[in-house]
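Aim 2, interim progress: modelling of the nicotinamide-adenine-dinucleotide-bound target.
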Amino acid sequence: MLIDGQWRQAASGETFAVFDPATGQTIAHVPSGDAADVDAAVASARQAFQSAAWRDMMPAQRERLLLKLADLVERHGDELARLETLNNGKLLAFAQGLDVGGSAQWLRYMAGWATKIDGQTFDISMPHPPGTRYSASTRRAPVGVVGAIVPWNFPLLMAVWKIAPALACGCTVVLKPAEETPLTAIRLGELALEAGFPPGVFNVVTGDGVAGAALVAHPGVDKITFTGSTEVGRLIGARCGQDIRRVSLELGGKSPVVVLDDCDPAVAIQGASAAIFFNQGQVCTAGSRLYVSRRHYDHVVEGIARVADAMVLGSGLDPASQMGPLVSARHRDKVVGMIDTSRREGAEIVAGGAEVQRDGYFVRPTVVANSGSRDLEIVREEVFGPVVVAMPFDDLDAVLAAANQSAYGLGASVWSNNLRAVQRLVDGIDAGTVWVNCHNVIDPNMPFGGYKASGVGREHGRSAIESYTELKSVCMAY
Ligand code: NAD
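Predicted structure of the complex, ligand included:
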């Protein structure tokens, strides 16, 4: 673990094993942090936050450090991508392009914000003694020590989504990576030291939910930023509410993909397959509910089933693989369990439907048909795996109601060139992002986050900068 610029074992001396999900074999042992380690990391982040080296650093210097870190991430890109694939199972090409390439892009984008944080001036109308004038303005101050807790689906990228804006704003950070995938976070810590961030500005505590919960409850933490399950998000939100601690939550989703009747079925098949099967479906915005106009329903469902049946499963390191394993045995069992439940509840399994009997945690890409519009668990609950449930619809009102009939509201996509219909759905769908004729396009400049149980707050762009700063009004009489 990285605490105060030093590499340390856990205070307890305990470690935990980390696996290659493509083989099930142990690839590393990592310190198992708990409350004592979190305490040391938060103390170091607090001290760094108050130190002249960080507090008085010019914004342009923070920008430089972040740019340097981006360069280092890129320079070590191949190694980072291989590490991510080895630990998470994802396809190497995606790890290279998206996880590593995206991390460098986010670091550079947020580096630019360090020198562009501004406030406003205000004219004041309150009665005042004759002759008095006022100058009123706002300024943004870093929120302080940030506790960042991230999941295993995009380990490096999710960490960067949080640390880049936090550091750009002048905060200090304690990062707690997921227990399944801590390796790239550790490497990122090494690269941050090499880039020249002062000790304690960026700390990494490895461990499970015990370390996460200790970070959330620590009185020395000013803000928690969390991506993960809605279940854990609720606990974190409740605890932060109790302590009046700032919190942002990016949680689960059950994102609808809506194919209208003017859409070319070939485009829909390709788009909807990518929306669900990318990253083994382990994406919070995965297009897991597919609503197809009845005119194209059979054709599109058959097409996606053909795509699923043809997919080559294998290690993410093998260039021939088109889908890697799920992240863990526990997660594979959960996904397979949800497919079995949908079968029992009367849904038709059109493709896939089972784990692959071999080493590693592989599940066949699966297409479930729910043409009878039954109330199925798989329509309501997030699977977080390569499983799509398809349903036909007859008119726009019906599909809009169905799309919104969900506890979640993270993403949605609409596939059509019918301007009126598209605009109606864009306006009507309750989701933090609505894509049209695309899905899962996420950019550092575009706000990202959820309605309803999908979270609180927005990441990226100006929204991220606002979420890592406190707004201070200054009113001066003269
Ligand atoms: P999780 O929410 O349990 O874990 C996410 C992170 O939170 C990890 O770092 C974990 O150690 C930490 N954590 C766990 N318990 C905590 C606690 N009480 N206090 C503070 N931190 C805690 O998610 P998971 O078990 O890895 O996955 C479960 C489900 O979550 C998945 O099946 C999927 O549905 C969903 N998920 C969503 C996202 C997303 O991007 N929205 C990402 C991963 C998982």
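The radius of gyration is 24 Å. The longest strand covers residues 134-142.
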